[in-house]
Amino acid sequence: MPDGLTLPFHPRWLLVSCSARKLANSAARAGLTAATIDFFADEDTREAVQESARVPSGLFGFEAESLLAAADRLAPEQSGCGLVYGSGFERDIELLRRLCRSRTLYGNSPDTLALLKTPQRFFDLLKRLGISHPDVRFAPPPDAVGWLVKPVGGTAGIGIRPARRGIAPVFEHYHQRELAGGAYSALFLADGHTACILGYNSLWTADHETDAPYLFAGAINQTDLTAAQKQRVADDLNRLVPTTGLTGLNSLDFMLDGDAPSVLEINPRPSATQVLYEPDYPRGLLALHIAACQGWLPDSVPNPAATRAFRAWFAPAPLVIRSDMAWPDGCVDRPGTGTRFATGAAVCTVEAEGPDVQTVLDSLDQRFERLSRQCGQSPEPHWQSCRIRR
């Protein structure tokens, strides 16, 4: 983003996401006066903004009245604030509409979010555009073997399970054919007409929770994708963006079906993988998100200056954060003193960067071991399974 490009002025920017730390840090780099609302109000989120609020989760995301009350306190309607949202609205589009009233939204409209997070509409759109995706069904398949059950509007792999004959899911859902192999994403900017891909990532899932076998656990900004496969993803996005009007920072999740990319979903908002590229942009990716929402895209993007990765650390046993906790280097999303975690709950995120994949993976291993020792617990036994496919 050129230094001469001026961002719109708002007396305050309201950043709302299940976890707002990444948006908060990026806002600080852009010099924006910001407040956050999320589920955690972690220490490093609070350090990056002027004010923050922690609100409870509801059945499908935010507890609506708590969120709106916090928004009215931090960024009252008619105060001229700018609004950026992340995850948490996929199953409550009406809540997003209410939040947008009298606030200037920088991001995809509620209508665009509804289109891309309603499976029937999204997969019909992919079919019309000739974009490959795993087979989907909206009624139970005759044979459950090889099928997944996915919740409508789900995020982070929560609620995805293998289909089982005769067992009906509790919430609104659909069935999708399971694909073998690794999962990937493309982080991209869009101006409503064109996509600008910032990078491709390999995604990791956690394997410590048998009831959540597809739970998102982290990512690395390196893949084994070929140039042809990357070009196929770019072509798919350049059909999707003008059709949907996507703007700002978004991500596309996909897998390989044989050698061909097969689209799983679009997250039409800033994603967790923005941290893998944030250091490569002096004013941060939130600034680029805002500029793209106004119709500006970069002419070119830099290659990442380093290999970067992050992964969630899950408590191997019940845990209470002590007042003398000394967080190892690379620990972010740090919970406050006294926060309690059950076995298997996500405690924090561990980041690392280096010149190559192996160096980064080794660094993550070492930081996980230090973190476990700091908490007086045995090293987490599930980290070794999270390896990039080569």
Summarize the main sheet. 8 strands, antiparallel
Give me the strand/helix succession. EHEHEHEHEHHEEEEEEEHEEHEEEEEH
Amino-to-carboxy terminus distance:
33 Å
Instruction: Tell me the name of the CATH class of the largest domain.
Output: Alpha Beta
The amount of beta strand, in percent, is 25-35%
Q: Which regions have little confidence, pLDDT < 50, spanning 5+ residues?
A: 381-390
For CATH, the homologous superfamily of the largest domain is named as ATP-grasp fold, B domain
Strand order of the largest sheet: 14-13-10-11-12-15-19-17
Tell how many strands the DSSP assignment holds. Answer: 19
Helix content: 25-40%
Global shape: globular
CATH structural architecture of the largest domain:
2-Layer Sandwich
| Count of distinct structural domains | 3
CATH fold naming of the largest domain: D-amino Acid Aminotransferase, Chain A, domain 1
Mean pLDDT figure: 90
Radius of gyration (CA) equals 20 Å
- How many helices? The count is 9
Output the structural class: alpha+beta
Please describe what this structure looks like.
The chain is built from nine helices and 19 strands. By secondary structure, the protein is α+β, with helices and mostly antiparallel strands. Residues 381-390 have low confidence and may be disordered. It is 25% helix and 26% strand. Strands 14-13-10-11-12-15-19-17 form an eight-stranded antiparallel β-sheet. It is globular and about 55 Å long. It folds into three domains: 13-106, 3-Layer(aba) Sandwich (Rossmann fold); 114-293, D-amino Acid Aminotransferase, Chain A, domain 1 (2-Layer Sandwich), CATH 3.30.470.20; 307-385, no CATH class. The two termini are 33 Å apart. Strand 2 (34-38), helix 2 (43-48) and strand 3 (51-54) form a beta-alpha-beta unit.
